[in-house]
Amino acid sequence: MDVAGVLPWVLRLLLSPQVFAPVVFPGLATALVVLLTVIWAERKIAARVQMRVGPLYVTRRLGGVLQMLADGTRYMFQEFIIPVTADRVPFLFAPILALTLAIIPFAFIPSAPGFSPIKSPYSLPAALAAISAIPLSVLLMGWASNNKFAIQGAVREAFMGLAYEAVVFISALSMGVLYGTLDLEEAVARQWLPGIVLNPVAAFTFFVGMVMSAGRLPFDIVEGEQEIVAGPFVEYSGIIFGIGMGLAYLKLYSLSLLYTLLFLSGWEPLVAPLYSVYPGIAGIFLFVKAYLLMLFVAFLRSVYGRYRLDQALRAGWRVFLPLSLISLLISVVVKVVGCV
Amino acid sequence: MSRQLASFKLHLRAVATGLKYLFLPNRITVYYPEEYIELPEGYRGLIRYYPDRCIQCGLCAMICPASAMKMYRTKTDRKGRPGINYQRCIFCGFCVDICPQNALETTKVHDVAYKSLEEMILPPEKFSQEPISPAVAGGARKLKPVFDEERGLRHERV
Question: Which ranges carry the 4Fe-4S ferredoxin-type domain (chain B) (predicted)?
Fold first, then answer.
């Protein structure tokens, strides 16, 4: 292959849905920007509600929007300490595994009609499976750290993972029953009304499960800053700690993309001019909706106090699991009665 | 189940309250190093020592509940003079109250952030100097808290 032929080949590769969607939009590159801005926005929102100013001094004119970039740079140059008593290989391997698992869902999330990275009739369970495998690597982190707090945090992660992933799975399944498909692209196409109207109970339980299993403040029962320091991440320092922190947001980002696809009619209304230019960027509304949803979840931080582990588990098993089963029933009824 | 429904209503109310503050923010803090709130008369801030009035009785060091005040003795001065450790001080003002000669006085300066722990320990020589607020020295604007019927507290330029 000559040199002139390489450039179009690379461009074609980059613009193919298999690469563009998971790597550029709405995948990895966008996720990074989302991570930086959402963490900043969360701090700003919490500050507004709590009558404060929030981060300000990094790029003061823009309201401190580059604060997270500064923090990230600091993490980058911090010393990375491996404790002597830690199990070295899993200790280093677990965060990388967690990050990889957090990125995998982007391989199944379509950004526009006909623009799925992997077109599969089972893309919804596949994405959810990758997301719900993250607690396993967090468990490994806690185990490899060889630390009391880390082990406690890991056990909490296991408890919370079981309780709320079940809720998320069943509510997603009930939407699958309602649409008659487990393909995310098809699911959007079959929403003649937004899914949140068709099955509000499923939308509610999926939302709660999403917030709880993403484990962000104040539902950071796993990390439990006040009780068990940082849970599974207690022995991690430097950039790996940054990864641990970003993990919750990455998980939240992919879950809110799934939420948008299932309940908020995805990329509809489709921007037709953009679609004719390049279908990859036509899913702008999908991104906007998911981003607003993330901002709402970030806002919840300033409203709620912390839940204890037993409170969260009781709510999960006694309230939200039955509710999600009810949502499944509603879906079956709606399907059988024949509204769809 | 009725309990859960009742709590659901409370959740909604909490979210609504949060949203109210999000869209109609009611900021009560000030941009501190550029602005500062004027403290009222009699404010118990950093303590100043007047060595010429002191009779070296040591009552201040004795009364201090946090053991922040200590008498510094030298070979020539066996009775000693008080020095303060702001790592420990709780700004209760007992030392000021107990002093029979009014040799100690609270000031309106309360900028107690230091770059090193050693700076927080003031021996008698340093203790007798006027405390300086870095914010005021840096040319910060002075603000005055004003009671506001709607907002609660408001800060006005003086």
Answer: 45-74, 80-109
Among partner residues A45, A51, A303, which is closest to B27 by beta-carbon distance?
Answer: A51
> Which one, of A280, A267, A278, A251, lies nearest residue A34 by Cα?
A251
A51 in contact with chain B, both atoms CB, cutoff 8 A: yes
Domain range annotation of chain A: 81-337
Residue boundaries of the structural domains of chain B:
1-36+139-157, 47-129
Give B-chain residues touching A49 at CB under 8 angstroms. Answer: 18, 21-22, 25
Distances (CA, A) of A70 to A38, A75, B64: 15, 9, 43
Is the minimum CB–CB distance between B153 and chain A shorter than 8 Å? no
Distance from CA of B110 to the nearest CA of A (A): 20
Phi-psi region of A232 (alpha: psi -120 to 50; beta: other; left: phi over 0): alpha
pLDDT per residue as tens digits for the range A81-92 = 888 888 888 888
Query: Considering only CA atoms, which of A299, A320, A338 is closest in space to residue A205?
Result: A320
Residue A339 pLDDT? 56
What ipTM, to 2 d.p.?
0.73
Q: Please tell me the total number of residues recorded for chain B in this structure.
A: 158
pTM of the predicted model, to two decimals? 0.80
| Interatomic CA distance for residues B51 and B61, integer angstroms | 15
The per-residue pLDDT for range B105-147, each reduced to its tens digit, is 888 888 888 889 988 898 888 888 888 888 888 888 888 888 8
Q: What is the pLDDT of residues A42-80, one digit of tens each?
A: 888 888 888 888 888 887 787 778 888 888 888 888 888
Residues of chain B contacting residue A52, judged by C-beta atoms under 8 Å apart: 27, 29
**Interface check A288 vs B, CB under 8 A:** no
- Using the Cβ of A48 and the Cβ atoms of chain B, whether some distance falls under 8 Å is answered with yes
Any B CB within 8 A of A304 CB: yes
CATH number for region B47-129: 3.30.70.3270
